[in-house]
Amino acid sequence: PVRLAEPFETVRDWADNYTEANGKRPQIFLANVGTLRQHKARADFARSFFEVGGFEMIDVGGFEDVETAVNASVKSGARAAVICSTDESYPDIVPPLVQGIKSQQPEMVVILAGYPQDQVDAHKAAGIDAFIHLGADCLALNQWLQTKIATNE
Prior knowledge:
By secondary structure, this protein is an alpha/beta fold.
């Protein structure tokens, strides 16, 4: 028999070990673009999605433009960023946001909150590494992100 919580406990143990070795929790930056109404639901979802894995979410509010979001993401020192906004705004903000981040921090993992099916291929082509959404495998994505962070140390 296996306790259902055991895999998540293992993920959190990794985060605790990371914290002990690095002096801070593994961090993810919330690149919230647009008004509070545009990004809040997805930012809250992203926070819950990754905090269960022991990640610290850096949330400094929303950004009015992509350039400010890029600069804040890079300055944060986080190993990953989650873009949070609306499906309608994603075609305009995702490509320059991802390219801006990756041009300065190529190893940074960039995740999109949501899964706009008609935009997925374009976002992958722009450099999005993963998508989080209601149908996503929370455990697998937390484990995957841990592996990405560990290999970029």
